[in-house]
Amino acid sequence: MTTRMADGSAGDADYGDIGKVYSGHRNPDPRIAAAITAALGGAGSVLNVGAGAGSYEPDDRTVTAVEPSASMRALRPADRPAVDATAEALPFPDATFDAAMSTFSVHQWSDVAAGLAELRRVTRGPIVLLTADPDLVRDFWLYEYAPEVLDVEARRYPAISTLAAALGDIRATRVPIPHDCVDGFNEAYYARPEKLLDPGARQACSSWSFVDTDVVERFTAHLGKDLADGTWYRKHGHLRTQPTYTGSLILVTAVSA
Question: What are phi and psi of 89, to 5 degrees?
């Protein structure tokens, strides 16, 4: 049985806390949204599991959202409510939807295999997941400053092989992250390191909630110093003008059962 927190959060992070800053830092990026919409194909009805505030839900489809956190459901527009449920126990009949999607959510599920089995049960067509490849997470420059944060991410995200075992044949495509990405996950700041000195920006990324205060203090002191004396720029300054960054962000698509 899935254990849920006070506000209904069903994963390992407390979205009652994260939700306080989420909408100020985690906005759907239109270029990433276009990749998701393309992967959904011609689906008219779409299930969005772990839907949060509604990021990346296509406006031109009939979307049914599922979100266990009351705090995140409260961030949704009044005309786009979400069902209070978890991925592992979807309250829908078999083959209800043309397609299903989940963005930055699958690593939160208490039982990934069960959740994906439920998505396949209720979905006739493609299942589209925006997630991260744990084998690539530590390649980001942040690992030099806060390895504990990316170690957490690498442990939480399911391996591509795990997703394939649950969904069958999949296509996993690395998604380029735009220089000015408005969805503030850690790698979105690849060219703007100073953004991660903002406590709100860190709070909006669930991985930071798993590390101790001393890790955060060491990170801010180290990065702040390297930005001030030019060390970061000597190592990574080329990223300032790099239009995109291809990191651990992946789009996984399972076309059929």
Answer: -145, 75
> Using one digit for the tens of pLDDT, what is the confidence trace for 199-244?
999 998 999 999 999 999 999 999 999 999 999 999 999 999 999 9
Cβ distance 164 to 227 under 8 Å? no
Residue type, 8: G
Tokens encoding 161: 């092989």
DSSP letter string over 113-169? HHHHHHHHHHBSS-EEEEEE-TTTGGGSGGGGT-HHHHHHHHHHSPPHHHHHHHHSS
How far, in Å, CA of 83 to CA of 145, rounded? Answer: 39
C-alpha 102: how far from its chain's center? 8
Cβ atoms within 10 Å, residue 12:
16
pLDDT at 181 > cutoff 50 = yes
Cα separation, 107 vs 158, in Å, equals: 6
SS (H, E, C) 213-255: HHHHHHHHHHHHHHHHHCHHHHHHHHHHHCCEECCCEEEEEEC
- Six-digit token string for 192: 């703007």
Q: Are residues 12 and 111 in contact, defined by beta-carbon separation less than 8 angstroms?
A: no
Name the pTM for this structure.
0.89
d(CA 77, CA 221): 39
- Extract the runs of DSSP E, i.e. beta strands, from 2-121: 45-49, 62-66, 82-83, 99-103
Using N-to-C axis directions, what is the helix angle for 213-229 and 147-156, rounded to 10°?
120
Q: Are 106 and 131 in contact (CB under 8 A)?
A: yes
CB 99 within 8 A of CB 110: no
